[in-house]
Design a protein that fits this description.
By secondary structure, the protein is of the alpha+beta class. Helix content is 54%, strand content 22%. Helix 2 runs antiparallel to helix 4 (124-155).
């Protein structure tokens, strides 16, 4: 790359930058997912999806299709919420699916869900201990991002 192209690129970068108060919500959520995966041994993947099945962020292995997993997580969240309210009249927090090859845990995270995939030998207690606060943090990130969008819409 020539010096002229680098200079032009730097100039264009300065002219097109938009000031922001913090990182993009998806970037903050992705950072939480990666940190969770680093802290929990045998955790194989994480995903955040909206309640209507849209992918927010993921840290999944390559063999899992993120959009399809987001849709499944939303369906599980909806079904679990309905089951919980029908049986006990209360809210829903989490559901654990024990499979032959591992675990899938879906945590309610505000209007989104945190889905955590782990191997069969994972310490489920540790998984919950680390994942529950992350679900709350993600809910806070998404609520703050949503409030920012609402404020921008009101002022326009």
């Amino acid at each position: 790359m020539t010096a002229r192209k680098r200079l032009l690129g730097a100039l264009m970068g300065r002219l097109t930058k938009v000031s922001m108060s913090g990182p993009e919500p998806n970037a903050a959520v992705l950072a939480e997912l990666k940190a969770l995966r680093d802290r929990v041994p045998r955790l194989t993947g994480t995903l955040v999806a909206s309640s209507d099945g849209l992918l927010v962020a993921h840290d999944l292995p390559p063999h899992i299709e993120p959009a399809g997993m987001a849709a499944l997580a939303a369906a599980q969240l909806s079904l679990s919420y309905r089951l919980s309210t029908t049986a006990h009249g209360g809210g829903f927090h989490e559901v654990v699916v024990h499979g032959t090859e591992g675990h899938v845990v879906v945590y309610a995270a505000g209007w989104t869900s945190l889905t955590v995939l782990a191997g069969p030998d994972v310490n489920v207690g540790r998984l919950h201990l680390e994942s529950r606060p992350v679900a709350r943090t993600i809910a806070d990130h998404m609520a703050a991002a949503n409030n920012g969008k609402d404020q921008a819409t009101k002022t326009e």
